[in-house]
Amino acid sequence: MTTSFITSVYGRTETEYIVKKSRFIATLAEVRSEAEAAACIEKLRKQYWDANHNCYAYQIGVDGALQKSSDDGEPSGTAGRPMLETLKKSGVTNTVVVVTRYFGGVKLGASGLIRAYSHAVTLGLQAADIADYKPYDIADVTVSYSFVSTLERMTPSFDILVADRAFSDTVTFTLQIPQERTEAFKAALIDTTNGTAHFIDKGSRTIPIIRPKNPQ
């Protein structure tokens, strides 16, 4: 069973910094398709209609197979491409970034523009929530009260998320299990409950697991 997953920014974030009086605003957003990316770019163009440039880059799909960038009037290769390269190096996909520039009257030169646009994206990535979208199996596991504490001890060791509990004459846990650990968990469940637990497969889904931020 595959254990591949997609890493993306989660939601939307905006950062800003100033270089030689030029104001750079980086907006990063999670997108699932080229149409969503285009809609996000157009919305920001309307929001920052008075800016000198709204440069963008995005990559979408597994391994960032779909990529596009634009210098939006900046000298060729000084904005969109460096922005895209910064995205690629970060490892995120399903992500669009728009860097809005308000010119401050001082020219930065080609190398200065490349550094400025790259750094704008880097700052945005540092501020953004980053999520790993991992495949999980969903299951209802029913045990007697005598095995509740046993199951509660097991779930963290298999990186299982407990979504719900239902109490009656037995206890039913709704679990979200990393797909690569499902079979091992089922075997351990049978062993530790002497075969009395009931495991009902409820399908699978992809769940975003937000990475903890590194302390600055």
Automatic annotation (TrEMBL):
<dbReference type="InterPro" id="IPR015796">
    <property type="entry name" value="Impact_YigZ-like"/>
</dbReference>
<dbReference type="GO" id="GO:0006446">
    <property type="term" value="P:regulation of translational initiation"/>
</dbReference>
<protein>
    <submittedName>
        <fullName>YigZ family protein</fullName>
    </submittedName>
</protein>
<dbReference type="GO" id="GO:0005737">
    <property type="term" value="C:cytoplasm"/>
</dbReference>
<dbReference type="InterPro" id="IPR020569">
    <property type="entry name" value="UPF0029_Impact_CS"/>
</dbReference>
<dbReference type="InterPro" id="IPR035647">
    <property type="entry name" value="EFG_III/V"/>
</dbReference>
<dbReference type="InterPro" id="IPR001498">
    <property type="entry name" value="Impact_N"/>
</dbReference>
<feature type="domain" description="UPF0029">
    <location>
        <begin position="141"/>
        <end position="195"/>
    </location>
</feature>
<comment type="similarity">
    <text>Belongs to the IMPACT family.</text>
</comment>
<dbReference type="InterPro" id="IPR015269">
    <property type="entry name" value="UPF0029_Impact_C"/>
</dbReference>
<dbReference type="Pfam" id="PF01205">
    <property type="entry name" value="Impact_N"/>
</dbReference>
<dbReference type="InterPro" id="IPR020568">
    <property type="entry name" value="Ribosomal_Su5_D2-typ_SF"/>
</dbReference>
<dbReference type="InterPro" id="IPR023582">
    <property type="entry name" value="Impact"/>
</dbReference>
<feature type="domain" description="Impact N-terminal">
    <location>
        <begin position="20"/>
        <end position="122"/>
    </location>
</feature>
<dbReference type="Pfam" id="PF09186">
    <property type="entry name" value="DUF1949"/>
</dbReference>
<dbReference type="InterPro" id="IPR036956">
    <property type="entry name" value="Impact_N_sf"/>
</dbReference>
